[in-house]
Amino acid sequence: MVIWKPHLADVYLATRSLGGSMKVSLHASGECFVRAPNPKSWKGSGAAPRYLDKWLLDVSSTFQFPFSVVVPEQELRIADWAPHREKGTIWINPRPGFGVEVGVFLIRSDQNQDATLEAGGWYETIVDTPLPDGRRLIVAAGTAGVPSDRIIELEAIRVAAQRVIAGRAEPARNPRMILFAGPNDLGTRKFIEAAVTRAA
Q1: Cβ neighbours around 53 below 10 Å, total
Q2: What is the pLDDT of residues 38-84, one digit of tens each?
Q3: 122-155 confidence digits (pLDDT tens)
Q4: Contact 23/41 with Cβ under 8 angstroms?
Q5: Which run of H or E residues covers position 67?
Q6: Can you give the residue ranges of every domain in the chain?
Q7: Cis preceding-peptide flag for 147 (omega within 30 of 0)
Q8: What does the longest C-alpha to C-alpha distance in the chain come to?
Q9: How far apart are CA 58 and CA 62, in angstroms?
Q10: Which residues contact 103 (CB under 8 A, 6 or more apart)?
Q11: How many whole angstroms separate alpha carbon 152 and alpha carbon 138?
Q12: Which of 31, 37, 179, 181 is the S-S candidate for 41 at Cβ 3.0 to 4.6 Å?
């Protein structure tokens, strides 16, 4: 889900499953942060922080790739999803043998970016809209290949999370994890979304 306030050029993004708990905010000033869940929903150790991550973008540059959300192939599900109200939802079809990565880009260019995105492995544009400060917001879906050693690491984290949840008095419904990776050389934060309980 992508929500923006055009008069401020601020962009707010959240996933469907975690939107009620946390979101990423990209402000026109260049300030970016991942807000932590509501303190009442905080399951981590210690007091709930205000932010899980916070960083700055150079808003004068021609290209920014602030973050992406990666769903490994092993986390994708085939199912008859429950009907929902039509709200402009875009269903992304993954490429066979790959996971899905949804990337957020901010650029200063009026040129068509389709060829550039495709060359980078981004095969579906979800949002392409101008912002009041002269930049363009592009959200695109692409292929995500996750190395096998990272999948093994993900499984170990999943088992640890299952133990923590099993030890809690109140059960968790459809528990999910967000793992932080980055920033890389471009300053991009990558978030890996995964289920705590594996589908049968």
Answers
A1: 17
A2: 666 666 667 777 888 888 888 889 999 988 888 888 888 776 666 66
A3: 999 988 988 888 899 999 999 988 788 888 888 8
A4: no
A5: strand 63-71
A6: 2-75+94-195
A7: no
A8: 55
A9: 9
A10: 65, 67, 68, 122, 139, 140, 141, 142
A11: 32
A12: 37
CB 1 within 8 A of CB 14: yes
Pairing of strands 63-71, 189-195: parallel
Helix ranges (H only) for the chain are: 114-119, 148-166
pTM: 0.80
**Cα distances (angstroms) measured from residue 168 to each of 111, 149, 162, 195:** 53, 30, 10, 17
Q: What does the alpha-carbon distance between residue 181 and residue 70 come to, in Å, rounded to a whole number?
A: 10
Look up tokens 């934060």; give the residue.
Answer: 189
CB 23 within 8 Å of CB 53: no
Q: What pLDDT is stored for residue 125 in this prediction? A: 92
**Residue 19 DSSP class:** T
In b/e form, how buried is each residue of 12-44, taking b as 16+ CB within 10 angstroms? bbbbeebeebbbbbbbbebebbbbbbeeeeeee
Residue with tokens 């995500």: 144
CB neighbours (10 Å) of residue 137? 20
Partner residues linked to 54 by β-bridges: 33
